[in-house]
From TrEMBL:
Belongs to the class-I pyridoxal-phosphate-dependent aminotransferase family. Keywords: Aminotransferase, Pyridoxal phosphate, Transferase. It comes from Vreelandella subglaciescola. Its cofactor is pyridoxal 5'-phosphate. GO terms for cellular component: cytosol. Residues 27-391 form the Aminotransferase class I/classII large domain. GO terms for biological process: L-phenylalanine biosynthetic process from chorismate via phenylpyruvate. This is Aromatic amino acid aminotransferase apoenzyme. It comes from the Bacteria. One of its GO terms (molecular function) is identical protein binding.
C-alpha cells in the first residue's frame, strides 16, 4: 500500500535552516527561524528556568499521569498571568484552564472543540497569519476564511480588516493575535481592539485569541490588553496561550487552552468537553514544562528573576528594531523601513520583496522567508551594519 504514498515538500523554514547550515559565508545571518536569539545567536535556557528545574529534580516524587487538564497548580498560575491578577473574570469564576502541549496543542484542542460542538461554524484568520493556523483548523475539518490584515504599502490594513469582520456570518469564529502578530509584527492599538470588540459583539462572533508571545511586545500586562478587554466585556472567548517563547521552553511543549464563559456552570460544561478532546488527542499533556512554569510563578524570587530576564529579551528586540532603522539612515532608507521600528514582537514584515529576499540570500548569505518576514532576534549589534549595507544594495542604493 505504501508505494502509493507521495512525498510532500517539507516545511519551508526547515529548508531554510538546512541551506543556512551549508552556507560557508562567514558573515551569514539567519533571520528565518522562529525562536529568540541572544547577541551570540544562542537560544539560552533562562536562569529562572534552570533554577526551577534544579528544585524540581530534588522535589519530584512521581511520574504518574497528571490528568487531561494538566497540573492544577499550572492552571492556577497561568489564569492570572493571562487574565490579570485581580481579573473580574476570575473573581466571577468564568474562566477555566486546560494545559496543552504548547500553543499549537491548545489551538488543536480549540479546533476540535469547535468542529464537534459548534458544527458548521467557519473560522476566520488574518491574511497573512502563522501558516500553521491553516493546517490546524483545516485538519480539524473547519472551513477556513481570511480577512485582510496588511495593505499593499506594508501597513496594518485596519479598515480592510474591519470591513471584512463586519461581514462574517453570525456565530462564526474569528482568530485574533493578542500581540506580536506573526508574521507581520503589526498589532492593534487599544482603540482598535475596542472597535473590533464592538463588531464581534454586534455580529455575535466567537473570538479565539492566540496569545503566543505574552511579554515580548510591550510587557506582560500591556500585551494582554486585548485579551483582558474581550474576556471582561464579552460572555464567551477562547484563548490559546503559550509558554514556549516567554519562558524559552519551546521543546517542553507547554501551553494552555482557556475558556471564558458567561458563568461558572457554562465554564465547567466547556471544560468537561476540553478534557474529552484532550483525551482523544494525547490523553495527558507532558508534565515537565508546566511544572517549571508553576514553580516559577508560585515563587516570588523566581518570578522576579524570570520577569527581569523576559524584560531583557524584550528590550533587546525593541532596541534592535530601532537600531536597524538607524543603521539604514546613511543609505536614506530609514523611512522606507520605519515599520520595523514600529512593529512588535519577534517578527517583522520588512516589506522586502521575494526578489530582494533571494538576492540577500544568494549575494550576502542573509536568510529569511520569501514573504520578507524577518526574525528580529536574529539581528545583532555585530551584523546590523552588514545587514544595512546588503539591504541598500538590493534596493539599488
Ligand atoms: N501561535 C502563533 C501565532 C505562533 O507564532 C506560534 C509559534 N510559532 C504558536 C501559536 C505555537 O506555539 P508553540 O510553540 O507553543 O506550539
Amino acid at each position: 500500500m505504501f508505494e502509493r504514498i507521495e512525498r510532500v515538500p517539507g516545511d519551508a523554514i526547515l529548508g531554510l535552516i538546512e541551506a543556512f547550515k551549508k552556507d560557508t559565508n562567514p558573515q551569514k545571518v539567519d533571520l528565518g527561524v522562529g525562536v529568540y536569539r541572544d547577541d551570540n545567536g544562542n537560544t539560552p535556557v533562562m536562569r529562572a528556568v534552570k533554577e526551577a528545574e534544579t528544585r524540581l529534580l530534588k522535589s519530584e516524587t512521581t511520574k504518574t499521569y497528571i490528568g487531561s487538564h494538566g497540573a492544577p497548580a499550572y492552571g492556577d498560575a497561568v489564569l492570572p498571568l493571562v487574565l490579570g491578577a485581580d481579573s473580574p473574570v476570575l473573581e466571577a469564576d468564568r474562566a477555566s484552564a486546560t494545559q496543552s502541549p504548547g500553543g499549537t496543542g491548545a489551538l488543536r484542542l480549540a479546533a476540535d472543540f469547535i468542529a464537534k460542538q459548534l458544527p458548521g461554524k467557519g473560522i476566520w484568520v488574518s491574511d497573512p497569519t502563522w501558516p500553521n493556523h491553516h493546517g490546524i483548523f483545516t485538519a480539524a475539518g473547519i472551513e477556513l476564511h481570511k480577512y485582510p490584515y496588511v495593505d499593499a504599502d506594508n501597513r496594518l490594513d485596519f479598515d480592510g480588516m474591519l470591513a471584512a469582520i463586519k461581514k462574517i456570518p453570525d456565530g462564526d469564529v474569528v482568530v485574533l493575535h493578542a500581540c506580536c502578530h506573526n508574521p507581520t509584527g503589526f498589532d492593534l492599538s487599544a482603540e482598535q481592539w475596542q472597535t473590533v470588540l464592538d463588531v464581534v459583539r454586534e455580529r455575535n462572533l466567537l473570538p479565539l485569541i492566540d496569545f503566543a508571545y505574552q511579554g515580548f511586545g510591550q510587557g506582560l500586562d500591556e500585551d494582554a490588553y486585548g485579551v483582558r478587554l474581550f474576556a471582561e466585556q464579552l460572555d464567551e472567548v477562547i484563548i490559546t496561550s503559550s509558554c514556549s517563547k516567554n519562558f524559552g521552553i519551546y521543546c517542553e511543549r507547554t501551553g494552555c487552552l482557556i475558556a471564558v464563559a458567561k458563568d461558572a456552570e457554562q465554564k465547567d460544561n466547556i471544560r468537561s468537553q476540553f478534557a474529552i478532546v484532550a483525551r482523544e488527542n494525547y490523553s495527558n499533556p507532558p508534565a515537565h514544562g508546566s511544572a517549571i512554569v508553576s514553580e516559577i510563578l508560585h515563587d516570588a524570587e523566581l518570578s522576579a528573576m524570570w520577569r527581569d530576564e523576559l524584560t531583557e529579551m524584550r528590550d533587546r528586540v525593541n532596541t534592535l528594531r530601532r537600531d536597524f532603522v538607524e543603521a539604514l539612515k546613511p543609505y536614506g532608507l530609514d523611512k522606507k523601513y520605519a515599520c520595523v521600528g514600529e512593529q512588535r514582537g519577534m517578527f517583522s514584515y520588512t516589506g522586502l520583496t521575494p526578489d530582494q529576499v533571494e538576492r540577500l540570500r544568494d549575494e550576502f548569505g542573509i536568510y529569511m522567508v520569501r514573504s520578507g518576514r524577518a526574525n528580529v532576534a536574529g539581528f545583532s549589534q555585530q551584523n546590523l551594519p552588514y545587514l544595512a549595507r546588503a539591504i541598500a544594495v538590493v534596493n539599488d542604493v
